[in-house]
Amino acid sequence: MELRRGLAPALRDSVLSIGNFDGLHLGHQALLQRVDALAQKGDLERVVLSFEPLPREVFAPSDAAPIPRLSSLREKLVLLAASQQVDVLHLLRFDRTLAGLAAEDFVRHVLVETLRVRCVVVGEDFRFGRGRCGDVALLMSMGRDLGFAVETVDPVVVEGERVSSTRVRAALRAGQLGEAERLLGRPYALCARVAHGDKRGRLLGFPTLNLPLGRKHFALHGVYAVEVRGLDGKVLQGVANAGVRPTVGGVVPRVEVHVFDWAGDAYGKQVEVRFCAFLREEQRFAGLDALVAQIAVDAQQARAFYGQS
Do residues 15 and 46 touch, judged by C-beta distance below 8 A? Predict the structure, then answer.
């Protein structure tokens, strides 16, 4: 998959889908599958148009509770590439200038003149343009005049409800990792590069991988049993804390992972942490002794989850 930042002119006619694709859940995957099928039929380029930052991050009121991302930009790129259903990702910087573009101008100048769309694939509730005035009906009307088709993909329904990023976030917030996995089609995971931390875990007897978050707000908060990939080619098990570490005065969210029965140099390695079971909420303890005692309990519970003694 090729990444093109900004509005680079397309080299071929395309089938295109537009959206945030945050988390790449089953609904997003249905869009990509249709793009792939149409592109193969017409020998067209498979294109996704997405945005950074996400539109809601630009327009969110300063006093509003932040909506966490399901995937960082890097994770989204990896997921889209791994789908093997996208030839080009056009990543536009979303700002108030782009948001102020009239829907008709977006279609004419961005989709037709620059990206050479022959077909646009979107969900039935797709909205775009200044004030979100553009919709599927407008796309279809302009498509008839400008020479491109429009296809809508029905919502994907799991257990009687529509799959959405909002629903995935709600499942994660409630600790329902199995529900999130059903909506995503895969376990929820964090991909990050191991960085140097304050090395406090090593002094407490529980050395950890320090994983800075590649997004402003993470979808998980608390303590989890996890699987770790990317160390020595093995799938390892452990326990992770996602949060700010209030007992030691932390303020910046991060994920720290204690890997069971493993010792090595992980700094700089790219790892994937799959969250398998929610154990408890993050909390503040009276002191380090109480914290260490609870970490021992957490580790034992995670081992029990994996059937370890």
Answer: yes
Least confident piece of the model among 77-81, 153-157, 230-234 = 230-234
Report, as an integer, the average pLDDT of 287-308. 92
What pLDDT was estimated at residue 287?
83
Q: What is the pLDDT of residue 59?
A: 84
Q: CA separation (Å) from 264 to 56, 141, 209, 260, 305?
A: 41, 60, 11, 12, 24
| pLDDT tens track for 186-211 | 999 999 999 987 766 666 678 999 99
Contact 284, 246 (CB under 8 A): yes
**CATH architecture of residue range(s) 188-305:** Beta Barrel (2.40)
Of how many residues is the chain composed? 309
The CATH class that applies to domain 2-162 reads alpha beta
Q: What's the burial of 43, exposed, middle or buried (CB within 10 Å: 0-12/13-18/19+)? A: exposed
Instruction: Of 282, 279, 284, give the one whose Cα is nearest residue 304.
Output: 279
Every domain of the chain and the residues it spans: 2-162, 188-305
Q: How far apart are CA 4 and CA 9, in angstroms?
A: 10
**Cβ neighbours for 252, distance < 8 A, ≥ 6 positions apart:** 244
